[in-house]
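Researcher: Let's try something more involved. This one mixes different molecule types, so please make sure each is placed in the same coordinate frame as the others.
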Amino acid sequence: MTKKLIVGNWKMNGSLAVNAGLLQTLLAGLNDDGVAADVALCASAPYLAQLQALLQGTALGWGAQDCSAHESGAYTGEVAAAMLRDFGCRYVILGHSERRQYHGENDDLVAQKAQRALAAGITPIVCVGETLADREAGRTEFVVKRQLSAVIHAVGHCASEIVVAYEPVWAIGTGRTATPEQAQTVHAVLRSQLKAASAHSSRNRILYGGSMNAGNAAELLSQPDIDGGLIGGASLKADEFLSIIASCPPAAAVI
Ligand code: 13P
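Model: All components are placed in one shared frame. Result:
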C-alpha cells in the first residue's frame, strides 16, 4: 500500500494574507521531522497562483475544488482543467457533496469532470457519500457504489488513476465523525469496487472526510482501507493540520 494522502479542502475560505501565513506555518512545521504522508491543499481558483508561487519545490502539493466538464469555450464563469494544470495543480476535488447539494451536480456531470481532469493530467479526488436519510434507510452502500460507478465507467482504463474520498454528508462540518468501523466498512466496499474495475487498483487511494481532526485522525488512518484524509475545517488551523499529518503511520508500516 502506498503512502497516506492528506488533503486540505479550504472550501471558500482564505485571503492572500491569511493563506500566506498558514502556508508559512505549515512549511515550517513540516520541515522539522520530514513528512510521513503526501500532503496537498485545495484552494479557491483565484489563489492557485499564490499556491504555485509559494509551494513550488516544497513537500506540499496543491489543487482546486472543482473544474468544468467542458474543454474550453463559451462557458462563462467556468474553469477548465487545463487552466488548473497551468497553475501546477496536481489534484482537483470533484463531486463534493456541497457541489452536489448547492449546484445540482449529478453523477454524470461528476464523471465528465473526472474525464476532463485526467485528460489534463490532474488527479481527480472523487467524493462520494450518503446523507443521513440514506444511511438510516440502509442505502449507504447502494449510494456510494452508484456515485463511484458513474466515474469508473466514464474513465475506463484510467480508473486506477483516481483518488476516491468517502465523505458521509452527515459528518461534514458537523463535528459528528463516522466511527472508524463505519468508515472502514464503506471503504472496504469502495475498495472492492475499484478492484473489480482495474488490475492496477493498488494505485487507488481512498480518503475519509468528515470532521476529521487531530483527536480522531490516528484511529481513522489506522484502518486498513483508509488511505488518507480529506480535511475541511481542521485544514484551516496549522497546528490541527500538522498533527493530522503527524498521525499518519510511515509508509513502510502501512500494510
Ligand atoms: P470538515 O472536515 O469541515 O467536516 O469537512 C470535510 C469536507 O467536506 C472535506 O472535503
